[in-house]
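testing teh design pipeline on a random one, pls ignore if ur not involved
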């Protein structure tokens, strides 16, 4: 038979195990602000990201969404919400919290002239949007989705021109081909170069798909082209260097409602690292990858998601 002393010792040991188990259970069941039961991470908050309809804007919108979700936000995404007017109305009416906007588009919205300096133009729209609309511009990317002047590589060598300053002196003997939306931007070169569409011998207004053929067939020597058009190089053309920044630069940046940014300041530190990664050549490449996937029968939304995801992973951002 067990002695009374032995029985008491065993009971004491058993009581100690019960106390330790109880304390351990209390320490884990309350979480103390840590990871909730089930291992899921609590959301930092919910934000709505909007975007315009064109392919480049969809890629930017998707990247913002992916980065914010990785940072712990719950994101309502409106990938192709509408045109510039619709998306701007959506942010000012609090239907969305942020979207990618372009500096030149904002200058036009504000009715302000360009300083022919991308950094000054960015600061102008940043200050004006904050004051007039209570919207913050985050960091802008070097990507320029705007207008340029192009010519064939051999035409450039023949004429001895590689930039717009050199072109200006010879414009009166040359024919310009341009889509209808490009003429006004050529006229906007007056302050920087003294060059307008009237400076050329003739202007041939054509559909964008025909302007390159006009130069190839010598019906024109120079054409207006889009800076993110990958077919410029594949068609044997070069961009004439805009050495005085006469063309408005369309640099994209996330713009965020001030009240949203005040509530979730992590949005800025999450999205700003993307800006320096986005160059014009990168945009051309990514749009080409989406186009190739679409050609293979991949739905555009999935193609945009796949390309954006691969790019962010490749940059170490996702």
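output:
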């Amino acid at each position: 038979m067990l002695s009374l002393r032995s029985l008491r010792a065993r009971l004491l040991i058993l009581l100690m195990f019960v106390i330790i188990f109880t304390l351990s259970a209390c320490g884990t069941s309350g979480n103390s602000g840590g990871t909730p039961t089930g291992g899921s991470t609590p959301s930092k908050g919910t934000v709505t990201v909007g975007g315009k309809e064109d392919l480049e804007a969809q890629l930017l919108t998707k990247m913002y969404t992916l980065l914010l979700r990785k940072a712990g936000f719950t994101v309502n995404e409106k990938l192709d919400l509408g045109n510039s007017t619709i998306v701007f109305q959506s942010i000012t009416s609090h239907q969305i919290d942020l979207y990618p906007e372009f500096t030149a588009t904002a200058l036009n919205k504000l009715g302000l002239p360009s300083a022919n300096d991308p950094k000054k133009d960015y600061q102008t729209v940043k200050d004006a949007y904050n004051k007039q609309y209570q919207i913050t511009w985050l960091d802008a990317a070097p990507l320029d989705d705007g207008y340029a002047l192009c010519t064939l590589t051999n035409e450039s060598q023949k004429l001895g021109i590689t930039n717009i300053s050199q072109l200006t002196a010879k414009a009166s003997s040359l024919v310009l081909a341009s889509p209808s939306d490009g003429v006004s931007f050529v006229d906007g070169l007056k302050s920087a170069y003294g060059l307008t569409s009237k400076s050329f011998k003739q202007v041939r207004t054509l559909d964008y798909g025909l302007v390159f053929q006009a130069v190839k067939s010598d019906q024109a020597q120079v054409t207006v082209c889009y800076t993110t058009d990958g077919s410029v190089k594949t068609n044997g053309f070069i961009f004439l260097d805009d050495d005085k920044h006469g063309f408005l630069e369309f640099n994209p940046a996330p713009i965020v409602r001030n009240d949203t940014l005040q509530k979730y300041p992590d949005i800025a530190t999450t999205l700003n690292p993307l800006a320096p990664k986005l160059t014009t050549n990168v945009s051309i490449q990514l749009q080409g990858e989406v186009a190739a996937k679409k050609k293979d029968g991949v739905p555009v939304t999935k193609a945009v998601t796949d390309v954006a995801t691969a790019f962010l992973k490749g940059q170490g951002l996702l």
